[in-house]
Design brief:
alpha/beta; Rossmann fold
């Protein structure tokens, strides 16, 4: 349910994060817009790899195949999309490279695509806010003022993510830590970060709050009994809700949906209703 002129849609009426002690954030598309448009880099690379197998499928058909599994695996570490790419190559009679090879090829292309964004922030040509989901800093301040411990966890490679978080001025907010994907992909997952928080008794499941634009973090937090905010931003402007993201995040268990954090008083009233 959404009130008139509101961008905050309540999905689970009566749900509350009033007792939250810990907040877990996804990075890309939830706070950072540095990598906006990443799918337009990943899809062509994968289609090229499948075309090399000599498949009888045309480019449009291959693009549909790729888009399906890229979207399905979005929010998990990038390596999982590359594992599926290798499987699809093999299914078509090709000889796939190692998934890690594909991942690094994709990252090289992505960094060429977004390098100018990082460079203009690094050179102070633009303010970091240009590449933040609107209202991000005010939201972080609100949560810290309420005494929450903040974590940042992403399927993006950890070294890149930490560099980008530094450039955006986000690092000091995350007193719980900043965690990202590793080449040894089995040693990290968002589920593992969540389980670590609960195992250390930093909060109970009901005291865990999450913000994410990906299926994984929303599903992981809602499954343990936390409150998940689905950030269904229509990037890069992030002014309206992306309908496809919205439906997917609701399916993952989001308690409410927002396109950005500009209506912070209203969002706070939804989150912290007693």
């Amino acid at each position: 349910m959404k009130a008139a002129n509101s961008s905050v849609e309540v999905v689970k009426r009566g749900a509350t994060a009033a007792g939250a002690k810990v907040a877990l954030f996804d990075f890309d598309g939830t706070l950072s817009l540095f990598r906006s448009g990443w799918v337009d880099v990943m899809l062509p690379m994968m289609v090229e790899e499948l075309q090399r197998t000599g498949s009888a499928e045309n480019e449009a058909q291959l693009r549909t195949v790729v888009r399906d599994y890229v979207d399905r695996l979005n929010g998990k570490q990038t390596i999982y999309q590359m594992i599926e790419l290798a499987r699809q190559v093999e299914l078509r009679g090709g000889h796939p490279e190692e998934p890690l090879f594909y991942k690094h090829r994709y990252l090289d292309r992505l960094h060429r695509h977004i390098r100018h964004r990082l460079d203009e922030v690094r050179a102070s040509k633009v303010a970091p806010e240009k590449y933040l989901v609107p209202g991000s800093v005010a939201l972080l301040q609100l949560l810290r003022d309420r005494g929450l411990r903040l974590y940042l966890a992403s399927g993006t490679d950890q070294d890149y993510m930490r560099t980008e978080a530094d450039l955006l001025g986000l690092t000091p907010w995350f007193d719980g830590g900043i965690y990202g994907a590793l080449d040894d992909y089995k040693s990290f997952s968002k589920r593992m970060v969540i389980q670590g928080i609960l195992d250390r008794a930093e909060c109970s499941p009901a005291e865990l709050l999450a913000f994410g634009d990906g299926y994984v973090e929303v599903q992981n937090v809602s499954e343990v009994g936390g409150f998940a905010v689905g950030v269904a931003s229509d990037e890069p402007e992030c002014r309206i809700v992306n309908a496809w993201k919205r439906d997917r995040l609701i399916g993952a268990g989001a308690a409410c949906i927002v396109p950005n954090f500009l209506q912070l008083p209203e969002l706070a009233s939804v989150l912290f209703a007693q």
